[in-house]
Amino acid sequence: MSDFASRLLALVRDIAASDPHSRESAADQVTDLVSGCSPADGRVLAGLLAAAAECETDPAALEAQLNAIIQLGSLAEPDMVARLRALDVEKLPRGLGDYVEDILEDAEGARGRVHGFGGPSA
Fold first, then answer.
1. Helix or strand holding residue 42 (H, E)
2. In whole angstroms, what is the distance from residue 15 CA to residue 105 CA?
């Protein structure tokens, strides 16, 4: 097994850990891997992070998860992050609702570009 595959599996385990500090740390580590991520690995991580964020109860872990999704950028496919719509942005800690809205806007823009609807013009 490659070092990257081992690290990816460890991140998957830690993103789903019962300890919020482990979840936060794992999400922070994802941002270190972004430049070396294949599109497939990035999609897996984005989907897992979105699922974790949907269930997250710890504000610091949630912030790290959302930040990691933002860092994954276009690897966070619209269908993978759509589950974030389940979050009530009004009830999230200050600033985190903006993260969620930014992720969902970027995902919708990516969906439009994929389906030929254009996107925000420069």
1. helix 39-55
2. 24
